[in-house]
Amino acid sequence: MPPSRIRYQQVARQLRRGLLLAHHTATLPGVAALPDQPLAVARLQRFKRRPSPFLLLISPDLASRVRVRRWIAWRSRQARQWMRRRWPGETTLLLSASRRAPVAAVERGAIALRMVDDDATKRLLRRCGGALYSSSLNRAGDEPRFPTRRQRRRWRHFIALPGTPGSGIPSALISLRGRRPQTLR
Fold first, then answer.
1. What does the buried/exposed string (b/e) look like for 6-37 if buried means 16 or more CB atoms within 10 Å of the residue's CB?
2. Considering the entire predicted model, what is its pTM?
3. Domains of the chain in sequence order
């Protein structure tokens, strides 16, 4: 289904009710939840069979950028350059988290962020406050695959956002927490 035919307001409403979202990303199929919905976060943790942290997908609009700045403890000149060069796109950046960062996105003082580039996800993010917790759509040890219709019927707490499958390759993961960038994946 083309992005113009999707009812984004309806999907956003369902996410606010605590449902999880199966969606395509530029890399792997993903599962997402609204950060401010405790029920959805608990469902995401249960589905992934692990506690947080979860990547935060963010929208490239100005309001989202301002919000994200509050979640980062500090941004070096080098980190700002990386953000300008690699975002939006398939790069996940690991940065030092501030005290205002969403709890389920923080592990050992770090927060992982990726600014999305695909139209469907950007449109949805605009209606959901600019950020979604996201993870690959798989459980530990399984391959990430977009769910079949049969699976979606069994997964009561999921909705699916149609889209174009990504590259099938995990995003690059770059840590900008130290003096020099470190490629983690």
1. bebeebbebbeebbbbbbbbbbbbbbbbbbeb
2. 0.81
3. 3-183 (3.90.870.10)
